[in-house]
Amino acid sequence: MEIEGVPEPARRALEAAGVGTPTPPAPYWRKTPHRSGDTMFSLIAAGIAGATGVYGHIKSRKFVGQRLRYTSLVEKPAIGLFAGVGAMVVAAPIVAILPIVGAGTAIAIGAGIGTGVALGVKDSKNPPLLED
User: Fold this and answer.
1) What's the rounded Cα separation, in Å, for the pair 119 and 57?
2) CB-based contact 110:55 (threshold 8 Å)
3) What total number of domains does the chain contain?
4) Is residue 59 in a domain?
5) Cα(115)–Cα(131) distance, integer angstroms
6) Could you tell me if residue 73 is inside a domain?
7) What is the pLDDT of residues 1-35, one digit of tens each?
8) How many beta carbons lie within 10 A of that of residue 36, not counting itself?
9) How far, CA to CA in Å, does 47 sit from each of 38, 56, 86, 100, 103?
10) What is the DSSP string of 26-92?
11) How many other C-beta atoms are found inside a 10 Å radius of the C-beta of residue 38?
12) Cα atoms found within 13 Å of the Cα of residue 62, Cβ hemisphere only
């Protein structure tokens, strides 16, 4: 870009300082203006997803370890996978209706219940002695 009407030494100094040169494009993470409300709702949604995943894990592990101990269902190795996928499929339409949470919450619920069932199966094979 030419700076017209400026003597040569001053023009070189201005170009060295960056005056008269086009500004570089903004980085990809600053294409949209920052809205602090979006960050707040994202943190709330992540907290809800994490809390429901942990709650599902704890409850399903306790249920499988205590109530399903004497059934043949706990002998199947893939029961945790089936329970997790089933919980995710059931939770998906519910979280689609709710305003803050989304698909990540359904995935967290499925992962929490699946891991809880898998560890509950291990707990049912070696039950704690004092909880009976």
Assistant:
1) 9
2) no
3) 1
4) yes
5) 21
6) yes
7) 455 666 777 777 777 776 665 566 666 666 666 56
8) 7
9) 14, 14, 22, 11, 14
10) PPGGGSS---HHHHHHHHHHHHHHHHHHHHHHHHHHHHHHHTSTTSGGGG-TTHHHHHHHHHHHHHH
11) 10
12) 8
Q: Which two tokens stand for residue 7?
A: 């003597």
Burial degree of 83 (CB within 10 A; 0-12, 13-18, 19+): buried
The model's pLDDT over 41-83, given as tens digits with 9 standing for 90+, comes to: 889 999 999 999 999 999 999 999 888 878 888 888 889 999 9
* Side chain identity at residue 81, one-letter code: L
Amino acid letter at 19? V
Q: What is the pTM of this model?
A: 0.68
Question: Which tokens is 15 given?
Answer: 């170009």
Q: Could you give the CA distance from residue 53 to residue 38 in angstroms, rounded to a whole number? A: 22
- Indicate whether 76 belongs to any domain: yes
Q: Angle of helix 103-125 relative to helix 36-66, nearest 10 degrees?
A: 20
Tens-place pLDDT, residues 92-109: 999 999 988 989 999 999
**């089936």: which residue's tokens?**
82
In a domain, 79, yes or no: yes
Query: Dihedral of the CA atoms 88, 89, 94, 99 (nearest 10)?
Result: 60
Domain that holds residue 54: 36-125
